[in-house]
Amino acid sequence: MKILIVEDEKLLADSIRTLLQKKGFDVEVAYDGETGRQYAELGVYDLLILDVMMPSVDGFEVARRVRMKHLGSMILMLTAKSELEDRITGLNAGADYYLTKPFDARELLACINALLRRQGAQVDEVRFGNTSLDLSSAMLICGENRVRLSAKEFDVMRFLLQAGGRNLSKEVILARVWGFDSEAVENHVEVYIGFLRKKLASIGSNIRIAAIRRLGYHLEAE
């Protein structure tokens, strides 16, 4: 399960990430609302944990933007405010649950597990055009043809497939696949895009990884 934490209190965000990673979740953190909004709108996360009080773009706005795009991510709002009106605002913005700070780690985990159970069964594959990616075996499949992807090829391909044809910048791919603190550069993305194009061609896929200069990559089905 993939979780995005959007929280401008770095210490709290990092402590929640550590807690969830120990429980086996795939967790990413954005330390400001605007970055969090950009990542959340990609639609690749099972759960969003949003702080309410952030400068510029707050948690309410991130939730609204996600719901406007009809994305299915569950949303858990975190706030230091316990007033009824604030809880109502959060729920109306699209939140599925509202947790008031400070909270116990056990309460947070219980909320997350309940929300993810509500979301339904885990998806076993993602598909675009005539091609699918088996998430359990990392096999890229087109009809009777299949090829296994390396770990990084798998991560890049899955991200592109889950974006559903939306454009992904090199910076976003780097952060999503290699991580915020990685020393990887944009050339790494270009190299793995090249690998994936060859593997797609080898199985007869009708998927094309299209590049837009200075904007990034997206999938097209020919």
> If you compute it from the alpha carbons, what radius of gyration comes out, rounded to the nearest whole angstrom?
18 Å
The share of residues in helices is 40-55%
* Second-tier CATH architecture of the largest domain: 3-Layer(aba) Sandwich
CATH superfamily membership of the largest domain: Response regulator
- For the secondary structure, the number of strands is 11
Domain OmpR/PhoB-type: 123-221
Domain Response regulatory: 2-116
Keywords: DNA-binding, Phosphoprotein, Transcription, Transcription regulation, Two-component regulatory system
Modified residues (4-aspartylphosphate): 51
Task: Please explain how this structure is put together.
The structure is a single chain. The chain is α/β, with parallel strands linked by helices and 222 residues long. The protein has two domains: 2-117, Response regulator (Rossmann fold, 3-Layer(aba) Sandwich), CATH 3.40.50; 125-221, Orthogonal Bundle (Arc Repressor Mutant, subunit A), CATH 1.10.10. Helices cover 42% and strands 24% of the residues. The chain contains eight helices and eleven strands. The protein has helices spanning 10-22, 33-40, 59-68, 84-93, 105-119, 151-162, 170-178, 186-202, and strands spanning 2-6, 26-30, 47-51, 74-79, 97-100, 125-128, 131-134, 139-142, 145-148, 207-212, 216-221. A five-stranded parallel sheet has the order 2-1-3-4-5, sandwiched between helices. Strands 6-7-8-9 form a four-stranded antiparallel sheet, covered by helices on one side. Strands 10-11 form a two-stranded antiparallel sheet. Helix 3 links the parallel strand 3 (47-51) and strand 4. Helix 6 packs across helix 8 and helix 7 (170-178) packs across helix 8. The radius of gyration is 18 Å and the shape is elongated. The model has no long low-confidence stretch (mean pLDDT 86).
